[in-house]
Amino acid sequence: KLFFTDYGSAAKVERCDMDGMNRTWIVRSRLQQPTALALDLVNKYVYWIDIYLESLEVVDYQGKKRQAVIEGRQIRHLCGLAVFENYFYTFNSDNLSILRINRYNGSDVQALARLDSAKELRVYQRRAQTAVRSHACEMDPYGMPGGCSHICLLSSNYKARTCRCRTGFILGSDGRSCK
């Protein structure tokens, strides 16, 4: 699944399949300007920052069990969000620092480093990566991902895929080759 925020005509947190199909709103009320999103892959939670409402909130993957984790003016300056183990990691654009915040009660805020500029933040750690199983976009014997000549996107499950083409090409009638 792909999770994302949108604060265009109607603010929302959504999810869809990797190929863009099955788009579903998971949060669409009490939301103004969701700007950062992070996933807890183990527990299947979606966290987001709403800088207008000055809140950091959480729901499960189906949009249930919503609750505010942190509320207040300090949220206004946060950019990017990552979650790992017991902490959030974010960037404060006001004082240019990377922060670590206890994700269960919003306490234990610690500045870890200073950067001149940042917009996004990610935590890469082996334990945070999910196990990869055989999937529909694996390379075929000819070196083509999922048998697609350009781009292979996982669909509704790991056994289904959709082929897409790079800009300037169109998908052939076989659903795999680009012309």
From TrEMBL:
Transmembrane segments: none annotated. Pfam families: FXa_inhibition (PF14670), Ldl_recept_b (PF00058). One of its GO terms (biological process) is canonical Wnt signaling pathway. LDL-receptor class B repeats lie at residues 1-43. GO terms for cellular component: plasma membrane. InterPro entries: 6-blade_b-propeller_TolB-like, Cueball_EGF_LRP_Nidogen, LDLR_classB_rpt. PROSITE patterns: LDLRB. Gene3D superfamilies: TolB, C-terminal domain. GO terms for molecular function: Wnt receptor activity; Wnt-protein binding. This is LRP1B protein.
